[in-house]
Amino acid sequence: MRIPKIIAIDGPAASGKSSVGLGVAKYFGYLFLDTGIMYRAVTWAIIKRSIDVTDEQKVSDLVQNISIKIRPPTVMDGRNNDVYLDGEDITWKIREPSINFHVSIVSTYPKVREVLTANQKKIGLMGNIVMVGRDIGTVVMPYADLKIFLKASAEERAKRRFDEEVKRGEKPDFKKLYTALIERDKIDSSRILAPLIPADDAIIINTDQKSKEEVIKEIIDIAIGKQMK
Q1: Per residue in 159-218, pLDDT tens?
Q2: Tens of pLDDT along 11-43?
Q3: What's 105's domain CATH number?
Q4: What is the mean pLDDT of residues 51-79?
Q5: Which domain holds residue 214?
Q6: Of 36, 168, 192, 194, which alpha carbon lies 20 to 30 A from 186's?
């Protein structure tokens, strides 16, 4: 069995997609792309320009007139990629609480998804890539050689996000993080356009009680055919 050239990893917020996807990409020497950071970048641009996130027309106009660049990390501060918006490094700015609160609303707008999905498809077609998000296996890369869908309880995901923010020197509120995740799950799963659902041929992995390393190994084993059914 040949090694998959395009690996799609989907799942809800804080399910471990980014860290796991990066680990898999490093193992195979593949490009890694977390598509969620593109939606975060758009959301940051909206907030910076004081645009009402509920004004779909203004948001749609904006997304067509900004430049988002995703590059390999040049600063070893824990980032997985460099994220630039119109030439400005916003890698950590897109992790601010205000972004977490608004990004799901922004991601429901058809024009936003149209523009960003087109960019993601172009990158994915180059192959030798691990792409993670919420609609990679169903919309962006439906022809991916391997599709993975990660699941985890809301409690587990809130704990992971809590720990991440503490490591960055922040003082998160666990209850607020948990509530925000529940709300985001609801929005992502119920939206009409590209809802958060596993592809019919996706392999579902529950990451509760599993370390990042265990999940990475499980996906690598699947990719090389050790566990493929």
Answers
A1: 998 998 898 888 889 999 999 899 888 888 888 888 899 999 999 999 998 999 999 999
A2: 998 898 999 999 999 999 999 999 999 999 999
A3: 3.40.50.300
A4: 93
A5: 6-223
A6: 168
Strand partners, 8: 131, 147
What's the pTM value of the predicted model, to 2 decimals?
0.84
Instruction: State pLDDT tens for residues 37-58.
Output: 999 999 999 999 999 999 999 9
Q: Is residue 54 part of a domain?
A: yes
- CA dist 15 and 6 (Å) reads 20
Query: Do the domain assignments include residue 88?
Result: yes
* 229 in any annotated domain: no
Provide the token pair at 138.
Answer: 């169903």
Asked whether residue 104 is domain-assigned, the answer is: yes
Q: Which strands form 68-71's sheet, in the order they lie side by side?
A: 68-71, 82-85, 88-89
The total domain count for the chain is 1
Which residues, listed in sequence order, are joined to residue 206 by a DSSP beta bridge? 151
Q: What is the DSSP string of the chain?
A: -PPPSEEEEE-STTSSHHHHHHHHHHHHT-EEEETHHHHHHHHHHHHHTT--TT-HHHHHHHHTT--EEEE--SS-SS-SSEEEETTEE-TTGGGSHHHHHHHHHHTT-HHHHHHHHHHHHHHHTT-SEEEEESSIIIII-TT-SEEEEEE--HHHHHHHHHHHHHHTT----HHHHHHHHHHHHHHHHH-SSS-S---TTPEEEE-TT--HHHHHHHHHHHHTTSS--
- Average pLDDT of the residues in 123-145: 94
In this structure, are residues 190 and 46 in contact, taking their beta carbons and an 8 Å threshold? no
